[in-house]
Write a structure and sequence with these properties.
Length: 318
Protein backbone atom coordinates (compact mmCIF):
# COMPACT_ATOMS: atom_id res chain seq x y z
CA UNK A 1 0.00 0.00 0.00
CA UNK A 2 1.52 3.29 -1.05
CA UNK A 3 0.88 6.76 0.28
CA UNK A 4 0.97 10.03 -1.56
CA UNK A 5 2.27 13.11 0.15
CA UNK A 6 0.69 16.39 -0.76
CA UNK A 7 1.28 19.91 0.31
CA UNK A 8 -1.29 22.59 0.89
CA UNK A 9 -2.58 24.20 -2.24
CA UNK A 10 -1.83 27.75 -3.15
CA UNK A 11 -4.38 30.36 -2.05
CA UNK A 12 -7.34 30.51 -4.40
CA UNK A 13 -6.63 27.06 -5.90
CA UNK A 14 -8.36 23.67 -5.27
CA UNK A 15 -5.48 21.63 -6.69
CA UNK A 16 -2.90 20.55 -4.09
CA UNK A 17 0.67 21.48 -4.90
CA UNK A 18 3.21 18.68 -5.46
CA UNK A 19 5.47 17.75 -2.59
CA UNK A 20 8.60 18.73 -4.47
CA UNK A 21 7.24 22.09 -5.63
CA UNK A 22 9.44 25.04 -4.62
CA UNK A 23 8.11 27.07 -1.74
CA UNK A 24 7.34 30.73 -2.24
CA UNK A 25 10.32 32.99 -1.60
CA UNK A 26 10.35 34.64 1.77
CA UNK A 27 9.79 38.37 1.47
CA UNK A 28 12.98 40.43 1.73
CA UNK A 29 11.71 42.35 4.71
CA UNK A 30 11.11 39.20 6.75
CA UNK A 31 14.55 37.86 5.85
CA UNK A 32 16.29 41.10 6.72
CA UNK A 33 18.04 40.86 10.02
CA UNK A 34 16.91 43.27 12.69
CA UNK A 35 19.50 45.76 13.84
CA UNK A 36 20.71 45.11 17.33
CA UNK A 37 19.76 48.08 19.57
CA UNK A 38 23.31 48.15 20.91
CA UNK A 39 24.42 49.69 17.60
CA UNK A 40 22.07 52.62 18.15
CA UNK A 41 23.58 53.09 21.58
CA UNK A 42 26.96 53.71 19.94
CA UNK A 43 25.56 55.70 17.00
CA UNK A 44 23.37 58.29 18.72
CA UNK A 45 26.01 59.91 20.99
CA UNK A 46 28.36 60.44 18.04
CA UNK A 47 25.47 61.72 15.91
CA UNK A 48 24.40 64.16 18.62
CA UNK A 49 27.94 65.48 19.10
CA UNK A 50 28.40 65.87 15.33
CA UNK A 51 25.10 67.72 15.04
CA UNK A 52 25.89 70.08 17.90
CA UNK A 53 29.47 70.77 16.78
CA UNK A 54 29.08 70.82 12.98
CA UNK A 55 25.53 70.75 11.65
CA UNK A 56 23.88 73.21 14.03
CA UNK A 57 26.60 75.92 13.72
CA UNK A 58 26.53 75.55 9.93
CA UNK A 59 22.75 76.03 9.82
CA UNK A 60 22.91 79.00 12.19
CA UNK A 61 25.73 80.52 10.16
CA UNK A 62 23.69 80.16 7.00
CA UNK A 63 20.76 81.95 8.64
CA UNK A 64 22.98 84.72 9.99
CA UNK A 65 24.39 85.32 6.49
CA UNK A 66 21.08 86.99 5.64
CA UNK A 67 21.39 89.46 8.53
CA UNK A 68 23.60 92.38 9.53
CA UNK A 69 24.81 90.69 12.72
CA UNK A 70 28.28 91.55 14.03
CA UNK A 71 28.39 88.41 16.15
CA UNK A 72 26.55 89.72 19.18
CA UNK A 73 23.80 92.16 20.07
CA UNK A 74 20.80 93.06 17.96
CA UNK A 75 20.53 92.30 14.27
CA UNK A 76 18.12 92.68 11.38
CA UNK A 77 17.35 90.56 8.33
CA UNK A 78 18.78 92.24 5.20
CA UNK A 79 18.21 89.51 2.62
CA UNK A 80 20.86 88.99 -0.06
CA UNK A 81 22.82 92.20 0.52
CA UNK A 82 25.84 90.36 1.93
CA UNK A 83 25.99 88.02 -1.05
CA UNK A 84 25.62 90.88 -3.54
CA UNK A 85 28.33 92.89 -1.79
CA UNK A 86 30.70 89.93 -1.92
CA UNK A 87 30.79 89.89 -5.70
CA UNK A 88 31.74 93.58 -5.70
CA UNK A 89 34.44 93.24 -3.04
CA UNK A 90 37.85 93.19 -4.75
CA UNK A 91 39.50 91.96 -1.57
CA UNK A 92 37.31 88.85 -1.41
CA UNK A 93 37.55 88.21 -5.14
CA UNK A 94 41.33 88.49 -4.88
CA UNK A 95 41.41 85.97 -2.01
CA UNK A 96 39.45 83.50 -4.13
CA UNK A 97 41.82 83.97 -7.08
CA UNK A 98 44.86 83.45 -4.85
CA UNK A 99 43.40 80.43 -3.07
CA UNK A 100 42.36 78.62 -6.26
CA UNK A 101 45.64 79.40 -8.04
CA UNK A 102 47.77 78.42 -5.06
CA UNK A 103 45.79 75.18 -4.59
CA UNK A 104 46.10 74.18 -8.25
CA UNK A 105 49.86 74.80 -8.41
CA UNK A 106 50.53 73.09 -5.07
CA UNK A 107 48.46 70.01 -5.97
CA UNK A 108 50.51 69.51 -9.13
CA UNK A 109 53.88 70.10 -7.44
CA UNK A 110 53.13 67.92 -4.40
CA UNK A 111 51.70 64.98 -6.33
CA UNK A 112 54.48 64.92 -8.93
CA UNK A 113 57.24 65.06 -6.31
CA UNK A 114 55.48 62.66 -3.91
CA UNK A 115 54.90 60.11 -6.66
CA UNK A 116 58.53 60.37 -7.79
CA UNK A 117 59.76 59.81 -4.25
CA UNK A 118 57.34 56.91 -3.75
CA UNK A 119 58.61 55.18 -6.89
CA UNK A 120 62.18 55.63 -5.69
CA UNK A 121 61.45 54.37 -2.17
CA UNK A 122 59.69 51.24 -3.45
CA UNK A 123 62.49 50.33 -5.86
CA UNK A 124 65.42 48.11 -5.03
CA UNK A 125 67.74 50.64 -3.43
CA UNK A 126 69.72 50.59 -0.19
CA UNK A 127 68.63 52.26 3.05
CA UNK A 128 64.98 52.38 1.97
CA UNK A 129 63.65 52.19 5.55
CA UNK A 130 65.97 54.97 6.75
CA UNK A 131 65.03 57.23 3.84
CA UNK A 132 61.32 56.68 4.42
CA UNK A 133 61.76 57.70 8.05
CA UNK A 134 63.65 60.86 7.09
CA UNK A 135 61.11 61.88 4.47
CA UNK A 136 58.11 61.64 6.82
CA UNK A 137 59.62 63.89 9.50
CA UNK A 138 57.82 67.06 8.24
CA UNK A 139 54.48 65.33 8.92
CA UNK A 140 54.96 65.46 12.68
CA UNK A 141 55.91 69.14 12.86
CA UNK A 142 53.28 71.81 13.36
CA UNK A 143 52.52 73.92 10.31
CA UNK A 144 52.90 77.20 12.19
CA UNK A 145 56.35 76.13 13.46
CA UNK A 146 57.44 75.21 9.95
CA UNK A 147 56.17 78.56 8.69
CA UNK A 148 58.16 80.56 11.26
CA UNK A 149 61.35 78.61 10.49
CA UNK A 150 61.01 79.18 6.75
CA UNK A 151 60.12 82.82 7.34
CA UNK A 152 63.51 83.31 8.97
CA UNK A 153 65.21 81.48 6.12
CA UNK A 154 63.48 83.51 3.40
CA UNK A 155 63.86 86.83 5.22
CA UNK A 156 67.46 86.49 6.47
CA UNK A 157 69.42 83.44 5.35
CA UNK A 158 68.56 83.43 1.64
CA UNK A 159 69.15 87.21 1.15
CA UNK A 160 72.49 86.90 2.96
CA UNK A 161 73.52 84.06 0.67
CA UNK A 162 72.35 86.05 -2.36
CA UNK A 163 74.48 89.02 -1.36
CA UNK A 164 77.45 86.74 -0.77
CA UNK A 165 77.28 85.29 -4.28
CA UNK A 166 76.33 88.60 -5.88
CA UNK A 167 72.84 87.61 -6.99
CA UNK A 168 70.41 90.52 -7.14
CA UNK A 169 67.40 88.17 -7.41
CA UNK A 170 68.24 86.43 -4.13
CA UNK A 171 69.46 89.51 -2.26
CA UNK A 172 65.93 90.61 -1.38
CA UNK A 173 63.39 88.56 0.53
CA UNK A 174 60.82 86.82 -1.61
CA UNK A 175 58.30 87.47 1.16
CA UNK A 176 58.42 91.20 0.40
CA UNK A 177 57.69 90.75 -3.32
CA UNK A 178 53.94 90.89 -4.08
CA UNK A 179 54.46 89.01 -7.34
CA UNK A 180 56.45 86.10 -5.91
CA UNK A 181 55.46 85.80 -2.25
CA UNK A 182 52.96 83.09 -3.21
CA UNK A 183 55.87 80.91 -4.35
CA UNK A 184 57.25 80.76 -0.82
CA UNK A 185 53.88 79.46 0.41
CA UNK A 186 53.89 76.77 -2.28
CA UNK A 187 57.41 75.68 -1.27
CA UNK A 188 56.64 75.47 2.46
CA UNK A 189 53.26 73.79 1.96
CA UNK A 190 54.81 71.23 -0.38
CA UNK A 191 57.62 70.52 2.09
CA UNK A 192 55.09 69.76 4.81
CA UNK A 193 52.52 67.78 2.80
CA UNK A 194 54.66 65.71 0.44
CA UNK A 195 55.32 62.98 3.08
CA UNK A 196 51.63 62.19 3.65
CA UNK A 197 50.93 62.12 -0.06
CA UNK A 198 54.00 59.96 -0.62
CA UNK A 199 52.83 57.37 1.93
CA UNK A 200 49.54 56.94 0.08
CA UNK A 201 51.42 56.41 -3.17
CA UNK A 202 53.72 53.89 -1.51
CA UNK A 203 50.66 52.01 -0.26
CA UNK A 204 49.40 51.90 -3.84
CA UNK A 205 52.70 50.88 -5.41
CA UNK A 206 53.22 47.91 -3.09
CA UNK A 207 49.87 46.45 -4.20
CA UNK A 208 51.10 45.97 -7.77
CA UNK A 209 52.21 42.33 -8.27
CA UNK A 210 55.82 41.85 -9.37
CA UNK A 211 54.60 39.38 -12.00
CA UNK A 212 53.17 42.28 -13.98
CA UNK A 213 56.57 43.92 -14.28
CA UNK A 214 58.20 40.59 -15.07
CA UNK A 215 55.75 40.10 -17.92
CA UNK A 216 56.58 43.59 -19.15
CA UNK A 217 60.32 42.91 -19.08
CA UNK A 218 59.79 39.69 -21.04
CA UNK A 219 58.01 41.76 -23.70
CA UNK A 220 60.96 44.14 -23.79
CA UNK A 221 59.29 47.09 -22.02
CA UNK A 222 61.59 49.86 -20.86
CA UNK A 223 61.41 51.51 -17.44
CA UNK A 224 59.45 54.44 -18.88
CA UNK A 225 56.99 52.08 -20.62
CA UNK A 226 56.48 50.15 -17.36
CA UNK A 227 55.77 53.42 -15.58
CA UNK A 228 53.38 54.67 -18.25
CA UNK A 229 51.50 51.49 -19.10
CA UNK A 230 51.63 49.52 -15.83
CA UNK A 231 52.34 51.68 -12.78
CA UNK A 232 50.24 54.75 -13.56
CA UNK A 233 47.08 52.85 -14.61
CA UNK A 234 47.23 50.55 -11.57
CA UNK A 235 47.64 53.38 -9.06
CA UNK A 236 45.21 55.76 -10.73
CA UNK A 237 42.79 55.34 -7.83
CA UNK A 238 45.43 56.53 -5.38
CA UNK A 239 46.19 59.49 -7.63
CA UNK A 240 42.53 60.48 -7.49
CA UNK A 241 42.49 60.16 -3.69
CA UNK A 242 45.58 62.31 -3.30
CA UNK A 243 44.32 64.92 -5.74
CA UNK A 244 40.96 65.33 -4.03
CA UNK A 245 42.38 65.33 -0.49
CA UNK A 246 45.19 67.71 -1.41
CA UNK A 247 42.93 70.18 -3.18
CA UNK A 248 40.51 70.17 -0.26
CA UNK A 249 43.31 70.81 2.26
CA UNK A 250 44.93 73.58 0.21
CA UNK A 251 41.64 75.39 -0.24
CA UNK A 252 41.56 75.69 3.58
CA UNK A 253 45.14 76.96 3.83
CA UNK A 254 45.60 79.16 6.87
CA UNK A 255 48.33 78.40 9.43
CA UNK A 256 51.31 78.36 7.06
CA UNK A 257 50.17 81.58 5.39
CA UNK A 258 49.71 83.29 8.77
CA UNK A 259 53.16 82.27 9.98
CA UNK A 260 54.94 82.95 6.70
CA UNK A 261 53.45 86.12 5.15
CA UNK A 262 50.39 86.94 7.29
CA UNK A 263 48.55 87.50 4.04
CA UNK A 264 51.05 90.07 2.74
CA UNK A 265 52.62 91.96 1.21
CA UNK A 266 49.38 93.89 1.53
CA UNK A 267 46.73 91.29 0.73
CA UNK A 268 48.67 89.53 -2.03
CA UNK A 269 48.68 86.16 -0.25
CA UNK A 270 45.47 86.38 1.74
CA UNK A 271 43.47 83.16 1.41
CA UNK A 272 39.71 82.79 1.71
CA UNK A 273 40.09 81.21 5.16
CA UNK A 274 42.14 84.22 6.30
CA UNK A 275 39.53 86.64 4.93
CA UNK A 276 36.80 84.85 6.87
CA UNK A 277 38.70 84.82 10.18
CA UNK A 278 39.89 88.41 9.82
CA UNK A 279 36.31 89.43 9.07
CA UNK A 280 35.12 87.81 12.29
CA UNK A 281 37.72 89.81 14.21
CA UNK A 282 36.64 93.02 12.52
CA UNK A 283 32.93 92.68 13.25
CA UNK A 284 31.85 91.47 9.79
CA UNK A 285 30.31 88.31 11.17
CA UNK A 286 27.26 88.04 8.90
CA UNK A 287 29.21 89.24 5.86
CA UNK A 288 31.91 86.62 6.32
CA UNK A 289 29.31 83.93 7.03
CA UNK A 290 27.97 84.64 3.54
CA UNK A 291 31.55 84.33 2.30
CA UNK A 292 31.88 81.00 4.12
CA UNK A 293 28.65 79.69 2.55
CA UNK A 294 29.85 80.54 -0.96
CA UNK A 295 33.24 79.01 -0.22
CA UNK A 296 31.56 75.84 1.04
CA UNK A 297 29.49 75.53 -2.15
CA UNK A 298 32.56 76.09 -4.34
CA UNK A 299 34.47 73.38 -2.43
CA UNK A 300 31.60 70.93 -2.88
CA UNK A 301 31.34 71.75 -6.59
CA UNK A 302 35.07 71.17 -7.11
CA UNK A 303 34.96 67.83 -5.29
CA UNK A 304 31.94 66.67 -7.32
CA UNK A 305 33.62 67.78 -10.54
CA UNK A 306 36.76 65.83 -9.67
CA UNK A 307 34.73 62.70 -8.96
CA UNK A 308 32.76 63.11 -12.19
CA UNK A 309 35.89 63.52 -14.31
CA UNK A 310 37.61 60.48 -12.79
CA UNK A 311 34.54 58.23 -12.53
CA UNK A 312 35.22 54.78 -14.01
CA UNK A 313 38.83 55.64 -14.85
CA UNK A 314 40.55 54.60 -11.65
CA UNK A 315 42.09 51.40 -10.41
CA UNK A 316 43.47 50.24 -7.07
CA UNK A 317 46.15 47.73 -7.86
CA UNK A 318 45.43 44.33 -9.30
Amino acid sequence: MSTTTTTPSAPGSDVPAPADAPRPATPLRSRRRRTDPIYHLFLFPALILFSLAITLPAVLGFLYSFTNSIGFGDWEVIGLRNYIAMFRDQGILGSYAFTLGFSLVTVIVVNVLAFTLAVGLTSKIRFTAVLRTIYVVPMVISGIVIAFVFQYLFANTVPSMGQAVGSDALSTSILANPDWAWLSIVIVTAWQTIPGTMLIYIAGLVTIPTEVYEAGSIDGASAWQNLRHITLPLVSGFIVINTILSFKNYLNAYDIIVGLTDGGPGVATRSVAMSIFRGFEGGDYAYQMANAMIFFLISIAIAVLQLRVTKGRTAFGS
